[in-house]
Design goal:
With 147 residues, this protein is an alpha+beta fold. The chain has five helices and three strands.
């Protein structure tokens, strides 16, 4: 989500936050599809014209089949849009596009990759010059005079 709180971006952020809150409640309390196991909506990104809401989600606790959840969400899109329309004060209810958020699993893979790299020499980490000790500072100049 954008963090710039100026002008139209503030509205994009507000609408995205409202949609995330409403969808979370609807999915938790209003859907009875067995394919839709508990999930977390990680982020909602709005198109500039507010016509499309890209909803990123991940199965809660890593449980559930992401493909089955995605199919269940796709089949519930009409219900979700209708409910959004009743709760949002918007001229057009945005089209919902659901995406599996794999950022956490990618982060874990990156951490494992970095952990598998050979350790570098400690001196190379401590300082740019490779010496590991602070470099000598230049002679201090005369203090500025007050005038």
């Amino acid at each position: 989500m954008r963090q710039n709180n100026q002008g139209p971006n503030r509205r994009l952020d507000r609408v995205a936050g409202d949609i995330a809150d409403i969808l979370s409640t609807l999915i938790r309390d209003g859907l009875r599809d067995p394919r839709i196991t508990p999930l977390t909506i990680t982020v909602v990104r709005m198109s500039v014209d507010l016509r499309i809401a890209h909803v990123n989600f991940m199965p809660l606790g890593g449980n559930g089949d992401p493909e089955a959840i995605l199919k269940g969400l796709f089949s519930a899109t009409g219900f979700l849009r209708r409910e959004l329309g009743q709760r949002l004060q918007m001229r057009h209810v945005p089209e919902l596009r659901f995406h599996l958020d794999d950022s956490i699993s990618r982060g874990v893979e990156m951490t494992q990759f970095l952990d598998a790299l050979p350790q570098t020499h400690p001196r190379a980490i401590e300082g740019e010059d490779g010496g590991g000790e602070p470099t000598e500072a230049a002679e201090p100049s005369d203090p500025p005079t007050e005038g």
